[in-house]
Structures are given as C-alpha cells and as structure tokens.
Amino acid sequence: MRNIITTLLVAAAFLTACNTSQPQYRIGVSQCLDDAWRQKMNYEMERELLLHPDMTLSRRIAYGSNELQCAQIDSFIAERVDLLIVSPNEAEQVKPAVTRAYRAGIPVIVADRRVTGDEWTAFIGGDNYKVGQLMAQWVREQCTKHNSQFKSSNFKSSNFTVLEVAGLPGSTPATLRHKGLMDNLPEGVVVHSVMGSWYREEAYKVVSEYLASHPMPDLIVAHNDLMAIGAAEAAGAVPIMGVDGIQPGLRAIVEGKITCSATYSSRGDMVIATAAQILHGEPFVRDTVLETTMIDASIAYPILRQDEAITRDLETLHLFQTQTESKWKQLRYDKTLLITWLIVSIVLFLLAAGYIIANQVKLQRKIKSDILPQLEDVQEAIQLSHRDVAFADRLKQVVDDHLTDQNLSVEYLGSMLQLSRTQLFRRVKTVTGKGPLDYIRERRLIRADQLLHTTDMTVQQVALELCFSSAGYFTKCYKEYFGHLPSER
Ligand code: FRU
Predict the structure, then answer these.
(1) 3-class state of residue 263 by DSSP
(2) Cα separation of 317 and 44, whole Å?
(3) DSSP 4
(4) Whole-angstrom Cα distance, residue 362 to residue 350?
(5) Cα(93) to centroid of ligand 1, in Å?
(6) pTM of whole model > 0.70?
(7) In sequence order, what are the beta bridge partners of 263?
(8) Do 451 and 464 meet the contact criterion of CB atoms below 8 Å apart?
(9) Mean pLDDT of the region 251-275
(10) What are the start-end ranges of the H helices in 243-296?
(11) Residue 200 and residue 208: Cα distance in Å, rounded?
(12) pLDDT digit string (tens) for 73-123?
C-alpha cells in the first residue's frame, strides 16, 4: 500500500512539474548590510526579476561582518547557484570567497563596492572617486563663500577645517571617496577624519568624541547620508554633506538637518538585467560606472516626493510579487493535491471495478458449478412432488370410489391406475407411507367411522358394507386405528 501511495505522489509531482514553468536559474545575492539604500537595491532587483520568470533570487545579509559574508558566499558555492551577486563588506577580506566562487565556475556580479583584482564577471556601481570630487567641490564652494564673508578680516583657507566622517576603511567606496576628496581640495584646507563605518549611531559617537577634544569644524563631509545625520545630531548647526541622496538623506535636507548630498545609484534592476544577459549567454557590459550628482535644499523636496512615490511603487510591486508567488505556490499545491486525488480515485475505482468483476466471475462459476445443478435438482423435486400430489389425489379418488367393492384388491387397483404391482407398491408407499392394502384399509375405516356417525347402521352392517370379512375383524381393526371400539361412538 505504501508503495502504491509513494508511486501516486511521485506521479502527481511529475505531472504537476510537467506543465508548470519552474525558474531555471537560481541567483545568490550576498548583501553586506541591510539599510535603506540596500533595501531600495533589493526592491529594484525584485522588480526587474518580474521580467525574468526563469530566474529566482536567494538573498543572504552579512550585517557588516566579513566572516559571515564569506561563509554565506561559500554556502552559495556549495549549493551551486547559477550566478552570484555580491556587494562586499570590505574588499580584501571578502575577496577570497568571491574568487572561490569565480573559480568554481559561478559567474559573479560585483555590485556597488568593488573587490580588488579581476576575478569577477561584471561590476555595476557608482563613481566613488567622483563622489569624493563632488565633496571637494562643495568644500571649495563653502570655502569661497566663507572667504568672501570674512575678506575684511583677512581670513585664510588654512584656518578652514573639514571633518570627514568616513565609511568602513576597507570598502572601496570609502577609499575612493576619501581619495576624490583629498585630491581635489582647495589648498590649505585642513581635513580631519573619523570613521563612522557607514552607521548613523557610529557617526554620532565618533563625531561627539572628536568634538570633545577639538573646536567645531567649519564643515562636515560624511561618506553617506546616515552618517551625515548622525554627525548632525552630534554637531548641531554645521554645514554637512552626505552621500546617497535617497529618502533618509533627502528628508534630512528638507528638514534642514544636513545641507546636501551626492546621489549614489543602487540600480538593482540593472544588476538583474546583466545577470539575465550573462545567464542567457548574451553580450553584457563588464564594468558599469553609474553617474553621480549633487542635491541641495533647492531641489531636495521634489526629489524626495519622487523618491517616496518610487519607493511606494517598488514596495507595492514587491507586495504584489510576494502575493503572486504565494498564490502560485498555493495553486501548485492545489494542483498536486487534485492530481493525487484524481489518480487515487482512478486507482480506487479500478481496484473496486476489478474486485467486482473478479467476484462476478467467481459467482458465475459458482452458480454454474454448484447452484445451477442444485436448482435443477430442486426443480426436479418440485416436478416430482407435483406428480406425487396428483397421484395421491387420483389414488384416493379411485380407492374411495371402490370402498364397498369386494373386488378392490392390489391387482385391481394397479389395473385401474395402470401400474404394475411393484410400481403401485412403490408409489403408494411414497405418497402415503403405507402399502396399498393398508391404505385401502385405512380409507375403509375412515368411511366406516363416517357411516357410524352419520347413519343408524350397526357395526355389523357397516363392517359388511365396507367388505370386512367379519364384524370382529372390523372391530379389531377399528380399535387399532381409532383407539376405541366402534360401539363407543
Ligand atoms: C549602504 C551604503 C551606502 C553607501 C554604500 C557604499 O549600505 O552604506 O550608504 O553609499 O553603502 O557602499
């Protein structure tokens, strides 16, 4: 029975799998962090994935840990994903795992943060050196503004201090943003750097510590908006520039907490589109560097509204996708159930039909071999008993008609009934249980009894009438049959 059930389930799964288009490619996504910027990137990926039903994503987040990220990449390698998308926490530390994946023959797309070397398939990310340049340009502008304000008091740019709140030092954006800033600063500007590691709370802490031992800087540049907000919370009303230009930063600009931000695109959609090109063997761009631009208070509000609308759309799409997926799952489950149920019903039906047919055949055989002959016997017996009843009637009739006839003997009775002596004896015995003579005597005694009861005839007269040899013999026979004397009527 267990074998039958297993076979049925396998058959159902097979039938279900046959006409359901299952994703063909499994993509592993290794994210270093899980902040607003990464979530936007994830939504963009999922939105683009709607256009590629042959691909499915499996995402793992390292929460800023190089070790965890390497372990997660290794698990993707062990699972033989068809492609790996990785946004490395720190370039050197995560590089060995990325290289292992690449050498295992898994195409690797490095997104946002780079790894050193060239053992990766494609890169898509922002221009971090340009971001640093934009920071330097902003510093220059602020410096010029400041100089013109203090021209009369003979201000020198060497008095101008910038506090840089840097991202995780081992990550390529932090390195390149710092370089872009330093390479392009106006002469004489003093830069102090603290490390916020990309986190708002960390930035708040390091800026507070800095301020405890330094005078307030003229400007703060933070490598992302979250750290810019953290710095603003610690420093108060200092002009602050951040990076990313998405919701938390845009809102902070609109609310006047920070001054401006450089955009830093996530373009998860482009990452997935490139993944599709690689998996489908189509041409793709190996190294894509995304544009960056400045956002200040003059344009932050409309961009914030637009970003909120886009985020809402992405979230709605994500919700829709999740619901559709769960509906598909339910449908697939229902379908498997239905097919299993159908197969079970058909098998049960066939088993029942087989059982019924086998039983019918058995019954027919039994009827033929046992019941029919018995029936024939019964029919014969019925026919025989019909003949016996008719014979018994006729015998009684003939005997009763000749009760007063002296000549009524076995031979005479046989001739009247057209039977030989033996036949007569056998048939009379069958229907009366007695011999012919005893039967004749019984009938005479019964008639005698009637006469004694219904007429004035004496015992002698009755005995003579019914051909008994003497009154004594009649009396003897009568007593034997009725249990009392004929005179005691
Ligand atoms: C998000 C983030 C961004 C930053 C980028 C650098 O995780 O910290 O704020 O621009 O990563 O890789």
Answers:
(1) strand
(2) 10
(3) H
(4) 18
(5) 17
(6) no
(7) 244
(8) no
(9) 97
(10) 247-254, 268-279
(11) 12
(12) 999 999 999 999 999 999 999 999 999 999 999 999 999 999 989 999 999
